[in-house]
Every structure is written in structure tokens, then in C-alpha cells.
Amino acid sequence: MSLDPHEAAALLAAARRERRTLPRFSDEHDGVDEAWGYDVQDLDRAARVAAGEWVVGAKLGLTSEAKQRTMHVHQPIVGFLTDAMAAPDLGGLVQPRVEPEVAFRLGADLDRALGRGEIASVLDGVAVALEVIDSRWTGYHFRLGDVLADNTSAAGFVVGEWRGVDLEGLANLAATFAVDGEVVSTTSPAAILGDPSEALVHLSRHLEARGETLPAGSVVLAGAMADAVPLTEGRRFEAVVEGLGSAVLSTL
Ligand code: OOG
Fold first, then answer.
1. DSSP H or E segment with residue 36
2. Ligand 1 centre from 199 Cα, in Å?
């Protein structure tokens, strides 16, 4: 039996409101694939906008082979960000995790598929970020269609200070992710598709294929540089990229 995308979006929204997780749709329904997942995500976005949220950008997920292996989904995924996620109500989350990322700010509309060499021309800022993810799927057990329907687990984000864009050396800057001052991962922006510029290339193609655009001023989270860690109370999470700055999320 297939599941109507409207019904799926309503089930996900109710579970989010009630702080419940769900068994993945793909176990019980046919047709839970990429196109279906983005259809549900589009309905979710429309419902949130109708409820007064603003779309402030986009995020990429599963942008490293390591993360794709961990989550058993083998391609990058795209979700949307809203203003509510910029000040997330952490108490309303059910199985939150946090991961270190690189964020970009668009200085021009992203309205066509771009090659790598054109990326700098649409950016006006780059920063270190932390993303809070919270899956609707119990234990983060999902397939591609499920995670797309769930807006790629997007729940919140924190962006450090915006810096001028120098894409040349960005990929190989040294990065760390620390919890309570103790480094849990040593990494670099190269963990994101080999170079985080590729996340923008991927996003621009994704938008063009769907006939969508993202306006100047939007924030783009390029993807995780290291595995997510559980977001628990009484802790301080910090991502640092040398020469770029840091992003901090404290639950103290
Ligand atoms: C999917 C979203 C992961 C990333 O940067 O890889 C993500 C998940 O693992 O829940 O945002």
C-alpha cells in the first residue's frame, strides 16, 4: 500500500508536536523513494510557512562517505531551514544530535546550476556552524525516502561569525569538534564532498532540477565534517575551524 504524501506530512507533523518517534514509512509502504520523500518535504515546508515560519535557507546532509555508510543512505540529501530553527527549542526535541558544519551565506540568488568555478560569485560569507538534527525515525533508522520526508532531520543551527569568502584554502583548514572542551573529532571541511564548494554545486543542481531558487541572504549548511554526537543537557559543544572561527552551542 502506498502512503499519500499529505497523510505522511500530517503524521510527521503530529509526531514532531507530540515529541514521538515513528517506525519508518518505508517498512510499511510502497513507493517511499526520493521523489516521494521530496514531495512530503515540500508539503511540510508549505505547512510551516502557512503557520508563520520563514524559510531562511537550505541544508545538505550525508555529504561524506563515512556518514553515508553510518546512516546506510548513499547520496547527499537536501532539506530546508526556517527562522524557528535558528533559535531552536531544544526541550521540544526527542533524540537530538549535534554536528560540526560549514555554513555559507548567499550574496546573490541561487537560480541556476553552477559549476565549481562559479560558486564564489554567489557567496558573501562563510562561517563555522553547528547543526542540531532530530530524526522522527526511531533510533535514526531510515531509508532515503524516509529521511527526505522528515526534512533531513533538520531541527536547529548555530552559526559563528561570518567571514569573507576565500574558497581556495577552505577545504584543508584544520577543524575540531569538542564537547566540554574535550576534542571528540579532528577533521577538516574537506570531509564535506572533498570540498564544501561541491555542496553548493550539488544544491544548485538540485534546485534547478526542481525549478526552485534560493534568494540572496539565505544560509546554506554544507554538511557535517564529523559524526554527530548526542545533544545532552549540561554540555558545551564547540566546532572550530582554524582561520575561520568557531560556533558554540551550550546546554548548560
Ligand atoms: C540525516 C541528516 C544528516 C548531515 O549533515 O549529514 C546531516 C541524519 O543523519 O539524520 O544533516
1. helix 34-50
2. 14
Give the pLDDT of residue 225.
97
Nearest atom (ligand 1) to Cα of 154: 11
**Average pLDDT for runs of 10 along the chain of length 252:** 95 97 96 98 98 98 93 96 94 96 98 97 98 98 98 98 95 98 98 97 98 98 97 97 97 90
The pLDDT value given to residue 173: 98
- Residues in Cβ contact with 69 at an 8 Å cutoff, skipping those fewer than 6 apart: none
User: Which pLDDT belongs to residue 1?
Assistant: 81
Q: Is residue 49 classed as helix, strand or coil in its secondary structure?
A: helix
Q: Which atom of ligand 1 is nearest to the CA of 135?
A: 10
Q: d(Cα 82, Cα 57) in Å, to the nearest integer?
A: 7
Residues within 6 Å of ligand 1 by CB: 61-63, 67, 71, 99, 131, 133, 135, 140, 147, 152-153, 223-224
The domains of the chain are located at: 5-250
- Is the complex ipTM higher than 0.90? yes
Cell numbers linked to 173: 583548514
Closest Cα to atom 7 of ligand 1: 61
The domain made up of 5-250 is a member of CATH 3.90.850.10: yes
Measured from the Cα of 99, ligand 1's closest atom is 5
